[in-house]
Amino acid sequence: MKTLKSLIYLSKGNLPSKMAHTVQIAKMAQAFSQKIKNFELVTAGDAFSAIQGMNSEFQNWYGLHHKFKLVRLPIHIKFRYPFPHNYENQIFYKVAILYACLKSPSVVYTRTPAIADILLKIGVPVLWEWHEPIPEESKSFYQKIFAYKNLLGVVTTLPQLAENYIDNGLLKNKILVAANAVDLKNFLPYQDKQLARKELSIYQEDKIVVYSGHLYEYKGIPTILETARLLPEYKFVLVGGWADDVQKVQAACQKIGLSNITLVGHVHQTKLASYLYAADVLILPTSKYWDLAGATCPLKLFDYMVSRRPIVASALPTIMTVARDQQNAILAEPDDPISFKEAILSLFENPVLANTIAECAFQEVQNLTWDNRAEQVLQFITERLQEVDEDVVSYRKSFIKYIKQKVFSRLDNYLPSLQSSQVR
């Protein structure tokens, strides 16, 4: 029986960052590290951070409770963290791939298509996590990835995405649907509403609706602003967002005369819980007009569930794989401020309903932890390893062969041009 002896997680290189996907990467890495002795998470860095590896600042940023091997490849001389939202570095990709090949782990895990593509060409066994549908204009690229024998499988978060991949050629036995999760420890100790508000200097008597996450329009920010206009006696607290986006929303509030919106900006994972505990209602107004609305089930939903506060969320099919109307949440029509207003009022007017759905969500999320998700993924990897040929998981020869092919290919292109120049 083949065993999973080592695992390397190659990120996009942008940790730490305010991007939500990096939270998922960091949490999954922490969970993997508790179950596999030889585990490494690889990201970009500079000379100083490469020496530090996992430091307290990185831990606090993501609310990590355990140190693990964090490899920060020094491709920058000096870098000011966090990484910007559009960070992408081809040099990091190449160095990270070389690093993984030289380490020869049992499996390489990644969420980055460019990294997965090159690793698969080399012959490295890869488990790829992906949360987006296959775009029509790039079908051939993804279908090529799905066809590699050394692609152990694809991990995704929604059955809708799994069907999309299967329709594009991925074998059913190579797909694992594993919902996103939550780190329960980040919400301990539990804070009652009064304590959380005292800590954050929020008035105890205020009726507070909290949103956490980025401030992009497709996240439903226009819906929040219009709902706030319809509910002037309620306070809306928005936690998160890039500095530029915070300024844009502030300007929008001033333009329409909104005074009941508070913009907090980005906070570390360790502080997020206090804002959720301070809420009367938590809001998730994802827009149906977002091109990825059919592929998203936000991390914030799981954070909301563990906070024991009632949730009002957009009635999107993907969100409804977790949220059920009148059971563990109240669902409102996406992009409809009146629907969100009525949902919020129903919770304030019916505290029994509010407490019931909040408690139901809390109980259900207890099993949706990163540890449990990592266990699912590792079991899937082990099963997939049994089904691949030995030469697929022994890739040193494949790596050398790939390098030779690249060298000879360049020589083949170089020699004709050299000969023609000599003739001239």
Automatic annotation (TrEMBL):
Residues 193-359 form the Glycosyl transferase family domain. It holds the Pfam family Glycos_transf_1. It comes from the Bacteria. It comes from Gloeocapsopsis crepidinum LEGE 06123. This is Glycosyltransferase. Gene3D superfamilies: Glycogen Phosphorylase B.
